[in-house]
Amino acid sequence: MPDQNSGFFFDEKSRDYFIKRIRQWGKNNYQNYPWREEKNLYRILLTEVCLQKTDSQKISNLYRLIRQIDGPEDIFDNMETLDEIISQIGLNYKKKRIIQMSLQLLEHFDGKVPGNYRALRNLYGVGDYIANAVLCFGFKKRTAVVDTNTIRIMESFFGCKSTKKRPRDDRTMNEILRSILPYRKYVLFNYYLLDFGALLCVHSKKFCTGCLLKRKCKYFIINSK
To answer: 26: which of 109, 113, 192, 216 fits an S-S bond (Cβ 3.0–4.6 Å)?
Structure first.
């Protein structure tokens, strides 16, 4: 199956095999983090900012504090809660990001989280990953969620390589991953991909021999010869 925008080609059978196997793995290994059931759009955005460069378990442990915040106005009405969140994360620069982002939402969006990519990207501290994560997990849109984990999966299984210094900012990788996403239950599939990259398809490749994708994984096939 071709992705005409990127120039990268993969066959339909490989795509179907990939989707089937990831779903099979995900059903047994899905990480039930509390924010994955969240409906409040501001908390979803806030959580994604907190998760950046932070261990998921740490955010899970402090999610009770995030639940105390319903919207951007609460950041200023309850600064002690924000201070406690930042203290537990240990990355002080995130406080400025959250405050500036919340001010923008109040001043330009009536306190509501916008549902389009460009508006999200214009928020202070919001990059490509966070914008697409909010669109997918908050607004349930069929968007690719590209981070170091999902890129590693794409490179390993399909053999697609980014030419950019920062592959996670490569629009081509985003287009390729989006073309591979299923058209049904894609939100859950994105969660499966994130979990698969974090738990099995890791940088050290130490779990390759037990991976259920190995029969068609280009990395495994090449390095098993």
So the answer is: 192
Question: DSSP character for 3?
Answer: E
Task: Quickly count: other Cβ atoms within 10 Å of residue 138's Cβ.
Answer: 22
CATH class, range 34-138: mainly alpha
Predicted local confidence at residue 9, as pLDDT: 65
Q: Please, where in the chain does CATH 1.10.1670.10 lie?
A: 2-31+143-223
pLDDT band for position 150 (cuts 50, 70, 90)? very high
Is the per-residue pLDDT at 10 higher than 80?
A: no
Q: Is 0.70 topped by the overall pTM? A: yes
| C-alpha distances out from residue 51 to 45, 55, 60, 201, Å | 10, 7, 10, 20
Q: Which residues contact 135 (CB under 8 A, 6 or more apart)?
A: 115, 116, 117, 120, 141, 143
